[in-house]
Amino acid sequence: MSQTNIEKHWWHNKIAYEIYPKSFKDSNGDGIGDLPGIISKLDYLKELGIDILWICPIYESPLVDQGYDIADYYKIMDCFGSMEDFMTLLSEAKKRDMYIIMDLVVNHCSDKHTWFTKALEDPTGEYGKRFYFERGRDGREPSNYRSYFGGNMWERVPGHDDLYYYHSFAKEQPDLNWNNPVVVQAVYDMVNWWLEKGVAGFRIDAIINIKKDTSFPSYEPDGPDGLCETEKIVSNALACRDNESIGTMLAKLRANTFAKYDAFTVGEVFNMEDGVLEEFIGKNGHFSSIFDFSLHLLTNCEHGWFASHRITFEELKQTIIQSQLQTQDVGFMANIIENHDEPRGLNIFLPEWIDREAGCKLLGTIMVMQHGIPFLYQGQEIGMTNIKLDDINAYNDINTIDQYHQAIERGFSKEDALALCNLYSRDNARTPMQWSDETEGGFTTGTPWFPVNPNYRQINVAKQMDDPTSILSFYRALLALRKNKIYENVFVYGRFEPAYEEIKDVFAFYRRAEEGYALIVSNWGKENITIELSDEDTRLWCMLDNMAEDYKLGTALRASMAQKEAQKSITLKPGQVRVYG
Ligand code: TEU
Ligand code: CA
User: Fold this and answer.
1) Residue 394 CA from chain centroid, whole number
2) Residue nearest ligand 1's atom 3 by CA
3) Are residues 161 and 203 in the same domain?
């Protein structure tokens, strides 16, 4: 069987781009990126080849967790602009055949949300029931759960000796009680309100966390703090059958909201139980797609940064292959190298002997040419890098500060703990976008809320715009190739199949559809590698090469139709990737 057999949807052939609004483009000099800033860059994104924009939270928020703590779901926060600006963004996107998706953060809200402030006044009353309030056990927290951002998930309610509320993330992010129908209905209403305004869908934050084991049992501690890690708590909650299952909760959410609008949804799903992928992203699945985090889980996610390890090429290759083979017949995964929670891709996935620019193009090609929906993250298209800060106080991210202290607690020196932050901090991806070599990288005329990476003079959009060999030019050609009408079916629905698997340091795969196929082949080693092609592959023509002098597409595609002498072998330099078709 060639070509995967999946029911078609409007989002399958789309390319998405994540915008972290605070750091994208500031229009009024207050140092904070905003909606008019995004609007001013729509043409840039369109030219790059982007269809769907995921905007990270722009709702009213105290910004304890950069907007993932929402105080009012119906209001755009002043620093990002107004509802009028948002409506302009929607209409300007529409003019360009682009789609806007919002971030849906409904596992928790902010402790400044009126529901929670009212709940604190009367924890046993109507508003208290919208959260999880519990009495302590044996004079302490109800259970020993470590929150994602450190410390116990249970926070003592001010003014009460023995009463606690539950927060999976920071204590300023109380979890909403999804077993309360009032909460669930309010979420449906809010989601539909945004869909009515014309958003095309949502990226859905930490959604797996909404399922709780409401008996809240304690587990075997796994650290000096006597607590048990979040992953275990979530997995056990998912397996718990006391209230509605996560499947029922999500199916109802979809039926009452997304399904009515043919909305595109991408779930942030960790800890999924075995065998439920079909239920999540198959036909009538809960979501259109979920992120493929398999590479990132290998590096830093599960047990904290102190326990992280550098991913090897073999691991990277095998992980991608496994994930593609397991998912492509079920549905579309959302493929990422970077996002606002992860370091820059080139800093964690590339072997040090690969040239930085070639390496960015290589990573991009592997990601974009897989089966699934590519999600680029702002700055990835110009090869933005991690930032090196030499003081823990220079970091802003709540998670980074916690990981630093966890590492110290486990015996790391200050220098080593800081080195972990330099490598893994979420702030690495949150530095302002580098638009030009002007002051502050052209991001703002004022003082940016977070430092611009000093390498903006070398790495910026303006510089790469007209350089035919730049990372940006390469991404444009790469996305154009993926969308090229002749190859669209190959790259969207074509079956992923590993190729030349036995050749050391080579990562190669086919995308096969009924009308044809493509071969993506790359060298991750230190030396040139010559590959003897199979008979079938000798007829292929190179459509894209990260070491070519000019990525302008068309020449290659036209040439592919011309008569061509068969080539029996190809030689790739270290870091070189080619797409043949
Ligand atoms: O992230 C969910 C999540 O599980 C993260 O804690 C993730 O494990 C971590 O960031 C990896 O380093 C989402 C958002 O993407 C994140 O920005 C928010 O902080 C979090 O939810 C809470 O809303
Ligand atoms: Ca601004």
Assistant:
1) 24
2) 206
3) no
Q: Does residue 159 share a domain with residue 56?
A: no
Range of the domain at 233: 16-106+181-465
Q: What is the pLDDT of residues 5-14, one digit of tens each?
A: 788 999 999 9
How far apart are the C-alpha atoms of 346 and 316, rounded to whole Å? Answer: 13
pLDDT at residue 257 greater than cutoff 90:
yes
Query: Domain boundary at 447, 465, 483, which?
Result: 465
Ligand 1 binding site (Cβ under 6 Å of any ligand atom) = 65, 68, 105, 148, 169, 205-206, 268, 270, 301, 340-341, 399, 426
Give the residue, out of 19, 55, 148, with the most ligand 1 atoms within 8 A of its beta carbon, to mutate for a pocket test: 148
Q: What is the CATH number of the domain that holds 76?
A: 3.20.20.80
CATH number, domain containing residue 553: 2.60.40.1180
Task: Please report which helix (H) or strand (E) contains residue 520, including its range.
Answer: strand 516-523
Read off the pTM: 0.96
Relative to the alpha carbon of 80, which ligand is closest? Answer: 2
CA 40 to ligand 2 center in whole angstroms: 12
* Domain membership flag for residue 331: yes
DSSP string, 198-260: T--EEEETTGGGG---TT-------STTS-B-HHHHHHHHHH--SS--HHHHHHHHHHHTHHH
The residues near 85 (Cβ < 8 Å, ≥ 6 apart) are 34, 35, 36, 39, 76
Residue 434 lies in a domain: yes
- Residue 174, in any domain of the structure: no
pLDDT tens per residue, range 292-313 = 999 998 876 567 888 888 899 9
Contact 563, 539 (CB under 8 A): no
189 and 87, same structural domain?
A: yes
